[in-house]
Amino acid sequence: MEQDETARVRALGEIAAEFDLDAIRVRTGDTEIEIVRRDAALPGPAPVAGVPIAPGAELSAQPGSGELPAPGPIAGANVRRVTAPVVGVFYDAPAPGADSFVEIGSRVTVGQTLCILEAMKLMNEIASDYAGVVVRCLVENGELVSLGQELFWIEA
């Protein structure tokens, strides 16, 4: 069943790309899946996936705030970015209270688990595609991350 949900999310993403849609939202019972496509350089709302909707609750963005995000640090030439392959909740450890998979300054190898992204009750271990040193973690434990959002910087 969980793979069916993952397949639905991927299919919705493909539909959004095929028809050049900025967003697509599907509601089935109390579950709503929303995929929002955006330019990586532009700020935008984080997509919500598989979140039960309370009756009377509103999902709305706060457009037109007029504020630009503060510029972040610039990655060096040897920095490789690890991005989220799915929308989900970021966990830095295998269980609550357990040690984190990696910390700033940790040396990692290719295939080493960096974190877990929970997407629709499916725990996805995110492994490093790079060997090097973790120089930055860009998300907090328990934070909802969007597809393609940067999670870690690894310096080779």
User: What is the number of beta strands?
Assistant: 11
Sheet-strand content, in percent, reads 25-35%
Q: What is the count of structural domains?
A: 2
User: What is the assigned CATH homologous superfamily of the largest domain?
Assistant: RNA polymerase II/Efflux pump adaptor protein, barrel-sandwich hybrid domain
Q: Provide a count of the helices.
A: 1
What would you note in describing this structure?
By secondary structure, this protein is mainly beta. It folds into two domains: about 1-50, no CATH class; about 80-155, Beta Barrel (OB fold (Dihydrolipoamide Acetyltransferase, E2P)), CATH 2.40.50.100. The protein is about 10% helix and about 35% strand. The chain is built from one helix and eleven strands; from the N terminus they run αβββββββββββ. The chain has one helix at about 1-20, and strands at about 25-30, 30-35, 50, 80-85, 90, 105-110, 115-120, 120-125, 130-135, 145, 150-155. The strands form three sheets. A four-stranded antiparallel sheet has the order 4-11-9-6, with no helix packed on it. A hairpin with a 2-residue loop joins strand 1 (about 25-30) and strand 2 (about 30-35). The radius of gyration is 17 Å and the shape is globular. The model is unreliable at about 40-70 (pLDDT under 50).
Which key terms come to mind for this protein?
11% helix; globular; OB fold (Dihydrolipoamide Acetyltransferase, E2P); 1 helix; single chain; 2 domains; four-stranded antiparallel sheet; mainly beta; 156 residues
